[in-house]
Design brief:
By secondary structure, the chain is an alpha+beta fold. 52% of the residues lie in helices and 19% in strands. The longest helix is centred in the N-terminal third of the chain and has 41 residues.
Length: 423
């Protein structure tokens, strides 16, 4: 099968005459520009996607996929039956009740405001990753009464009373100067009312575990106790703050949350993780889009090289173009010749740039490490999506194609008589 003459001539025009190698060099520069732009786009989008998914996994490792609360009250009663109803909804993997209150933690060396979460230790591990995040201690220690450890300088009683357990984050442990087995005081601003006003409620706990989620916000401001201890401390009786839910498809959590609301009816409110973290993930999405737009400018700059290269080819090949048109070649045929030139540059640059981008990401993951005392990550997370690669490749080819329009029209309008007058 013979190729159309436009293809043969177009590929031939990418190479210059021996006396003028500038065009061939400009062709290579144009291809290199497209290659670098495509590689930079793929690497940047892959790294940003990796960071987003790493952040997403850490958020969902500490929090549930769906949170159920009451619209009219601060607590939910009869939570056992409600939890069973939620667990029976399609695509729900597990559900567990929880208590959620703000308190102040104090130790011998400092104090810090945190969120205290009361959990059912048997169900919590089926909904969140708290069991996997524990670096010391165990969840079972939350329900066991034990004596706290004593240092030689401890001024407490010689025979300390058995205390319930509490699990705190690694950063919180370092800030308060407490470790496994040490004593902590939990102070609630809401306590009994006396003649002098409301008296803060204080209770001592024993550090039963230390967790590390990988997010400073959680590791420095979150603590866990058993749900029974939380209900007793906050005088909740047989009620909880809400119900946590884990689903099979995290990206279908919105649909499942609506199904849960229909099942439970008013006044219950089911919110999925995307709604709870809407501002954060919207900002990440916008940042990724803006980085894509900014790096597309690299490909656009490369397209200017294509314009200049094709313009130089038209100027150098004006005699050959005139002869082609004199032999019967139409203006559209001449345009196809130079459009092919631009498309070849774009396609070749894209085909080289895609594996180069993958190689760059592999090198970052393999050889580049982050200092552990500064970052929670030892390596930069990278996740290259096929959709992103397709968008980058198609965008590069479209931009290079658009860059061919002006030189092509210039070649198509060439008058053969005027071009051959002095030949």
């Amino acid at each position: 099968m013979e190729l159309p003459y436009e293809v043969f001539i177009g590929l031939r025009y990418l190479r210059a005459k021996r006396r003028n190698r500038t065009i061939s060099f400009n062709t290579l520069i144009s291809i290199a520009g497209v290659t670098i732009g495509v590689a930079a786009l793929i690497a940047t989008l892959g790294i940003m996607t990796g960071f987003k998914e790493d952040l997403q996994s850490k958020i969902l490792g500490t929090n549930s996929h769906i949170l159920i609360t009451s619209r009219t009250m601060d607590t939910i009663k009869n939570y056992g039956a409600l939890t069973d109803q939620v667990a029976a909804v399609s695509d729900v993997v597990a559900a567990t009740p929880f208590v959620f209150k703000q308190v102040l933690l104090t130790s011998n060396t400092g104090s810090h405001g945190v969120v205290l979460r009361g959990i059912d230790i048997r169900r919590e591990v089926t909904v969140t990753e708290i069991g996997k995040n524990l670096k010391a201690g165990s969840l079972e220690e939350l329900e066991r009464l034990a004596s706290p450890s004593q240092s030689p300088t401890d001024e407490r009683s010689e025979v300390p009373h058995p205390l319930p357990g509490i699990i705190i984050g690694k950063e919180l442990s370092l800030r308060l100067g407490v470790f496994l087995g040490d004593r902590l005081n939990v102070v609630s601003p809401v306590g009994p009312v006396s003649a002098l006003g409301m008296i803060p409620k204080v209770r001592s706990y024993r550090v039963a575990g230390v967790f590390e989620s990988g997010m400073f916000e959680y590791d420095s401001s979150l603590a866990y106790v058993s749900i029974k201890q939380a209900q007793e401390f906050f005088n909740l009786g047989d009620s909880v703050t809400g119900i946590e839910v884990k689903v099979a498809d995290i990206f279908g959590a919105d649909r499942i949350a609506q199904a849960i609301e229909r099942t439970l009816g008013p006044p219950y409110w089911a919110r999925d993780w995307m709604r709870l973290n809407k501002n954060l993930f919207s900002a990440l999405k916008m940042e990724k889009f803006m980085m894509f737009v900014l790096l597309v400018l690299v490909v656009i700059v490369a397209s200017f090289n294509i314009v200049s290269t094709l313009t130089m080819i038209v100027v150098e090949k004006h005699r050959e173009i005139a002869i082609l048109k004199a032999m019967g070649a139409t203006g559209k045929a001449v345009m196809r010749i130079f459009m092919l030139n631009g498309l070849v540059i774009g396609v070749v640059g894209t085909m080289i740039g895609i594996p180069l981008g993958y190689s760059f990401c592999w090198a970052i993951q393999t050889f580049y490490t982050l200092p552990g005392d500064v970052y929670y990550l030892s390596h930069i997370p990278v996740n290259i999506k096929t959709f992103d690669v397709v968008i980058v490749g198609v965008s590069a080819i479209i931009i290079t194609f658009l860059a061919t329009i002006h030189p092509c029209r210039q070649a198509a309008r060439l008058d053969p008589a005027e071009a051959l007058r002095y030949e």
